[in-house]
Amino acid sequence: MTINIYNTLTRKKEEFKPLEPNQVKMYVCGPTVYNYIHIGNARPAIVFDTVRRYFEYKGYHVDYVLNFTDVDDKLIKAARELGEEVPVIADRFITAYKEDVGALGVKEAVHHPRVTETMDDIIRFIATLIDKGHAYAADGDVYFKTRSFDHYGKLSHQSIDELRSGARIQIGEKKQDPLDFALWKQAKDGEIAWDSPWGQGRPGWHIECSAMAKKYLGDTIDIHAGGQDLTFPHHENEIAQSEAGNGTSFANYWMHNGYINIDNEKMSKSLGNFVLAHDLIQKHDPKVVRFFMLSVHYRNPINFSDALLESAKNSFDRIENALTNLVHRQQTSVNISEDNEEWLTTIEQFNVQFEKEMDDDFNTANAIAVIFDLVKEANRYLQSDQTHTDILQTFVDTLNDWLTVLGIPQTSESDLLDEEIEDLIEQRITARKNKDFQLADQIRDDLKAKHIILEDTPQGTRWKRG
Question: Could you tell me what percent of the chain has a pLDDT over 90?
Fold first, then answer.
């Protein structure tokens, strides 16, 4: 089956047709690295990593680019407040970003370009726009001439007149038209700056992505993605400057994920409901956080609360427990017989359904429903008097393949036998009696790492595989 993508540009689902066979050129707008990312930033990282993973699962090579904005007003302000240099702050939070999204199962991009490392390309891009009559210099600043691009507003589906009614020229701006936007900003005293034909300064926000996409993926790309809040003006401006400068279409498919609400209210610093991903993964299993994020279709808003996250944990535990039980049963099972071929057919039918849901605009919510349907069948099979190793392994492999697509680390069963577990528990009991709590905790943690859960009760220590 073909993959269908909802294209923000056309507002409809379209069959994905790559520019080159079995290749996907994909650009995702990354964070401004002046602080830890919040869960609103984490959602696109997870969503579009899953899109990438599914393309790879289907046999595509994905040239995946995610940029870092490592110089802008927020970074300059943070540098001033902290008494540090902009690159120092940027380096610190790029490292933090990679650690946080890495914990959430996000793969490294093929390219992670930074504004400060792409400056020559940005300056050349701006110069091209000026040469083609789409931009102009004004006392050290450079602005894009918005009305020079006939199709401005086509992504956000707004007319130029509607946009003009709400546009204003701020104090200090030297625009010719309120709709024009900055490509280059003249440096103020003490600010980090680069030399350019228009004087010392730094890029505007929008131009960086156009220059990076061109450098790493070419003039036209398959997919451009980001949060819904970037549709206008950021992505609208990217289209205008890219197509004006390159003379061809910029991106064939535009994908945008929905907002995150906190306890049914929009997340914002002013409401005090701002949740950092860095803090969240200290409190909750990152696998569960990712599972929760994918439990809603990426284009829909998602409501976040501790109660909903706990519910997601309980659901995810059902999947992990099924995998654990399937692997554990293999130790006492026999080889396949022809009478059980129908189970292999059943599992393949679920596999077809999983791909059907993912092919439909990467509908992870429905795909997860298929996972639970297969878990239900697996549990039913485990109730059989006699199970077969090949059937059990097919259940395990299928579930693990799907979990890999969703970016959730595979769960492996402990290779410890029951008597080995009991022996370790006795060692832990002895260690506690000897007040060697460090050893006792180490034994508990080692068992937990192998998915053996201990429960201390008045009647003694109980354990379970989980």
Answer: 74
